[in-house]
Design brief:
By secondary structure, the chain is an alpha+beta fold. Helix content is about 30%, strand content about 15%. The chain has helices at about 10-15, 50-55, 70-80, 85-90, 115-125; strands at about 5, 30-35, 40-45, 60-65, 105-110. α3 crosses α4 (about 85-90). The radius of gyration is 16 Å and the shape is globular.
């Protein structure tokens, strides 16, 4: 990732806000743009990786064609009925900075709705270790 560096501070150290154990923000590294030390974003790939076999198996994914001015939460709502699963779409497409604008005409791979439960099942299994 060009122009960015990982901060060695916790979310609490930066914001003074304590995150609950179940917060999705715990999945992300906090990064800062080198050019502007006040711009922060998070790396969605800190803890989770999509199984490469699932990413390439047509049984598990479908494609989604991005239109102009489409955002991750809109895609999530359209596919899964909730905007809160936006991170699954970004994760499935190896997106490092989900705050960058999506380009119209881009074709994304998305986990089929009938398999979305498997992500949560796997996350629960890891949490129990």
């Amino acid at each position: 990732m060009q122009g960015s560096q990982k901060l060695n501070k916790t979310f609490y150290e930066l914001t003074g806000i304590r995150l609950p154990q179940t917060s999705m923000l715990r999945l992300f590294d906090i990064l800062v743009e080198e050019e502007d030390s006040f711009v922060r974003f998070m790396n969605i790939f800190k803890s989770l990786r999509i199984n490469t076999a699932a990413q390439s198996n047509l049984l598990y994914y479908q494609t989604y064609d991005v239109e102009d001015e489409t955002f991750w939460d809109n895609i999530s709502f359209e596919l899964y009925g909730t905007p809160q699963l936006w991170w699954t779409v970004a994760l499935f497409n190896d997106v490092v900075n989900p705050y960058e604008e999506l380009q119209g005409g881009t074709s994304l791979k998305v986990l089929k709705p009938e398999f979305i439960y498997t992500l949560f099942k796997d996350m629960e299994a890891v949490a129990e270790l």
